[in-house]
Hints:
mainly alpha; 4 helices; 0% strand; flat
Amino acid sequence: xxxxxxxxxxxxxxxxxxxxxxxxxxxxxxxxxxKLNPTIFCVLSILICIFCLSKAMxxxxxxxxxxxxxxxxxxxxxxxxxxxxxxxxxxxxxxxLILIVSGVVLLNLFGKAK
Length: 114
């Protein structure tokens, strides 16, 4: 039973990450919330994101949820910026992203919240 609830927690986390990426990735298209359709999309997707994260936090430690969400969302939105807006991070930015993802992998594999 514990594995099923943990699996559903990670399912909520993945949905939160996907909707967080969608909201943050398309935020620039709102042009400061002056464009109605992109604004509605971003607001709805961030609300779904927060809902999913809150559900995940009931099943997975808060630190694991938020660190995983933050790192994967930052990395994915950076890649989104590379492909959609041609905004390539410099060497230090790339190293930083690698360190962020490495930290989340370590947290998920070896970190234990008490």
